[in-house]
Design brief:
Distance between the termini: 121 Å
Helix content: over 70%
Largest sheet: none
Shape: rod-shaped
Structural class: mainly alpha
Strand content: under 5%
Number of domains: 1
Keywords: Coiled coil
Number of helices: 3
Radius of gyration: 35 Å
Length: about 110
Amino acid sequence: MSSEHEKSLQNMPAVQDHAQQLVTLSEKVDRLTAKMDESMKKEVAVLKAKLKNLDRNSVARAENGLATETTTFAPLMNLTSSSRDRLVTAVHGLAPLACSEDFFRVPTTW
């Protein structure tokens, strides 16, 4: 046998040890990745729920603010949090009313 061949045979256990360490490390990384994925899924679900709740609360505050500021907006009291489209339509419908001259006119006769 040549000396190079003998050296390579002597190095085999070291190579096998390194290969085993690499496999072990790879398995650890896979487990950590799985844990991180699960954790991220939970965090994203929590954030989505918070965002949805915040969105509902914002719409409800907008509805209540519009409805309680003046009796002119009394029909808006019938809106629910789930009817955003109607709220937006109602708000856009109020814009021309607010811009009209008669809306801000002060009666001269009491």
